[in-house]
Amino acid sequence: xxxxxxxxxxxxxxxxxxxxxxxxxxxxxxxxxxxxxxxxxxxxxxxxxxxxxxxxxxxxxxxxxxxxxxxxxxxxxxxx
Length: 80
Known about the structure:
The chain has strands spanning 2-6, 11-16, 19-24, 27-32, 38-42, 45-51, 54-60, 63-68, 71-76. It has no helices and nine strands. The strands form two sheets. Strands 2-1-9-8-5 form a five-stranded mixed sheet, with no helix packed on it. The chain has a four-stranded antiparallel sheet with strand order 4-3-6-7, with no helix packed on it. The protein has a single domain (2-76), classed as F0F1 ATP synthase delta/epsilon subunit, N-terminal (ATP Synthase, domain 1, Sandwich). By secondary structure, the protein is mainly β. Keywords: ATP synthesis, CF(1), Ion transport, Membrane, Transport.
């Protein structure tokens, strides 16, 4: 699936991802390939994603995410 991580200043990441784990308001949740469409708010925590078997992690503050047609867009205010 395609992942875009956007901040007000730039595109932090744009590319393929095998899975994505996000810090949701009710706890962490995972998005896999062909996940049903979803929109969720995010809270402060760790966003992690796997690209070609390698885990990448970033600490984020609040934000929003959308999954639709195998594309995940994450809009966050800050990366810590």
